[in-house]
Amino acid sequence: MVDTASTDSSTERRRSGEVRPLQIRSVVDSLYSDLRNRLLLGELEGGLPLTELDLAAQYGVARPTAKAAMERLVQEGLLMREQNRSTRVPLVTVEWARDLYMSRLLMERSAVRALATSVTVPDSARDQLAEFEVLAAMADPNVMDVVSCDIAFHTALIDALELARFSALYKVLIGEVQLGMVQVQRRGLRTPPVQALEHAGILAAIAAGDVEGADAAISDHIEGACDQLTQAL
Questions:
Q1: CA 221, CA 218: separation in Å to the nearest integer?
Q2: What is the CATH number of the domain that holds 25?
Q3: How many domains does the chain have?
Q4: Residue 40 has pLDDT above 90, yes or no
Q5: Contact by Cβ (8 Å): 40, 179
Q6: What is the CA radius of gyration of the chain?
Q7: Do 104 and 139 lie in a common domain?
Q8: Which of 34, 55, 88 represents a domain boundary (last residue)?
Q9: Domain that holds residue 201
Q10: d(Cα 45, Cα 39) in Å, to the nearest integer?
Q11: Position 4 pLDDT exceeds 80
């Protein structure tokens, strides 16, 4: 028999914020998350070969667990696998950066032009701009916090079109986009205050229905980051 009084009481506590259920993560998720952070922060050298056996031994997990985590990272572009060759940490090169940033630019220009045409400023993009401005006011914000907010802003522009396939295509790039953003932040190439101003300029152009202005704003933003990163590599 179900104790309805106890159930009702538990529900009330959850509603009032007294109970915060913990999210249980699988071993695969935990391994994937740790490896992903290490790859983004450059703790694993570009070109380094990684095997399932090595990772299984390093983390004390089963080989299928290591394989599952690696597969997810390969799909995100944070690990590279070529036919008949081992899985490796990708090399961040000038060619890699140009290909990534120009691919982003083609997609994001299309998005902001469509948003400016319909004068649609996504609420989620406004929210991310507000968060970015808070980070920009800090003396030394955490790099991953800056990158997370940055990628959320750009993803909000893409998702605002409400085109499932378009969003899915952009998500294919997310891992590599984050890797590029971390490279920019760690090298001090673009400060959060500058990025916040550029994000604000993109939204202002969209809000004004200025299609060409929005196009120019997103182009300057992405091309500027690309130029600075390629010059530093």
A1: 5
A2: 1.10.10.10
A3: 2
A4: yes
A5: yes
A6: 21
A7: yes
A8: 88
A9: 94-232
A10: 8
A11: no
